[in-house]
Amino acid sequence: MKYRSAQHWLAAILMGWTMAACASLPDVDPNKAKVLATDAPLVKSANGVLPPNRAEALLKKRWAKNTLDLKAQATLEEEATGVPLIAGNTVKLLFDGPATMAEMMKAIAQAKNHINFETYIFDQDELGEKFANLLIQKQREGVTVNVIYDSVGTIGVPQEFFDRMRQGGIRLVAFNPVNPAKVRGNGWKVNNRDHRKMLIVDGRVGFTGGINISDTYSKSSPFRSKTRPRDKSDVGWRDTHVKIEGPAVQAMQWLFIQHWANQDAEDLRDADYFPKPVVAGDKVVRVLGSEPGGKYEIYRALLLAIQEAKKSIHITCAYFVPDDQTLQALIDAAKRGVDVKLVLPSVSDSGLVFHAGRAFYTQLLEAGVKIYELKLSVLHAKTVVIDGVWSTVGSTNIDTRSFLHNAEMNVIVMGDAFGLEMENAFKEDLRNSNEVTLKAWKNRGIGTRFKEFMARFWDYWL
């Protein structure tokens, strides 16, 4: 869900427009990264930093020559982001809202020490009330509950909804308040939003991805549901989340605590936020959090992976309005023979973004990029799998707003086992999509062309 409502979001943009000059994304040059990269990536584990020979062994599997060299890619990303890999994790792929909510609420119900929750949208609807009631119940049981919610993402939610949680003992922080009178210490930054979706339970289990707390997620996408939608109001949402256990959860915890502190909020109550990490599985991951004015970690990692792709780039993206560098990287990949496929929306909750993204179709199709539009669902997933071995799931859309103005979070998972799960999910999306051909696209109507033309004026702010 991109915005609370188009009117509220555009109002927030207009308020912030005069307060910030147009920032720009950094140049990402893989050749420069290769010069600066180390011989072996830094890999942390439950027992500390792995020695170089063990770190290399984790990633030394000889993939086919036409796929990414994971060791080399890991060192490039480390140079670009400054963030190490973390070994010893399990990563469970969660498909759509019902499956994700069931796993999250089960984890919350089993919490013994603390719950840290960060979200863009937290609606006061049936699902939101159920979620809030469970958090209040856990707080009453003695579990420490802390919540960060975005003030634009929740702009239409009555304050009483959050006050009830606060009266139940939960600590809450409204991220970058829209009301300047409520800003504490770090200035009015209405254009900078917290778009992350992150749940951490007892410092041992973490969830992240694209799913907010809203009734729109109470239904699966129709091709995963037992019933077909009867009308537009009955259409399910297609989204992706992951459940993580292992040392990587500590990296997620740090991101939450940093956000809490940066909002000049009251101190977090005492809890065992960093229990001794244990090996939970064999997945090697990189946890990336980006901030406005930061180091563009997610953007750099994604662009490097696209630039280095040898075999395939498979992207599912809800809001696709690529900057010049990302657009060129996708075009270049297709021209060098990489199988570049995009699954994009056929319907959207944001008309401006939908049409702005379609304005790039001609360039992409002419270069050989294949574009598919998902049927019967509102697409909200943000996933990428490259060469079947490099995967990312998170909150980040491929647009300037996500890369420049939002706080986002993505998890990168290295290896072909999780990559196969991602490829299977992507194939399922393909089966439930219509391909957009160049011939058909060139024959689109003048009304569609005009909407694309007008939407492009807003693409920096979308």
Features:
globular; 23% strand; alpha/beta; 462 residues; disordered N terminus; Endonuclease, Chain A; 16 helices; single chain; 2 domains; 36% helix; two-stranded parallel ribbon
Indicate the low-confidence ranges by residue numbers: 3-20
Mean pLDDT across the residues is 88
SS-based structural class? alpha/beta
| Number of domain units | 2
- Alpha carbon gyration radius: 21 Å
CATH architecture of the largest domain, by name, is: 2-Layer Sandwich
Kindly describe this structure.
It is a single chain. The longest helix has 16 residues, at 416-431. Helix 2 crosses helix 4 (70-81). Helix content is 36%, strand content 23%. It is globular. The chain is an alpha/beta fold. It contains 16 helices and 22 strands. A hairpin with a 3-residue loop joins strand 18 and strand 19. The protein has two domains: 26-89 and 283-456, Endonuclease Chain A (Endonuclease, Chain A), CATH 3.30.870; 91-262, Endonuclease Chain A (Endonuclease, Chain A, 2-Layer Sandwich). The protein has helices at 6-17, 30-36, 52-58, 70-81, 97-109, 126-140, 159-167, 248-262, 297-308, 324-335, 351-358, 361-367, 400-405, 416-431, 438-442, 446-456; strands spanning 43-45, 48-49, 85-95, 114-119, 144-150, 171-175, 193-194, 198-201, 205-209, 237-238, 240-245, 283-290, 312-317, 320-321, 339-345, 370-374, 378-379, 382-386, 390-394, 398-399, 406-414, 433-436. The strands form three sheets. It has an 18-stranded mixed β-sheet that branches. A two-stranded parallel ribbon has the order 10-17.
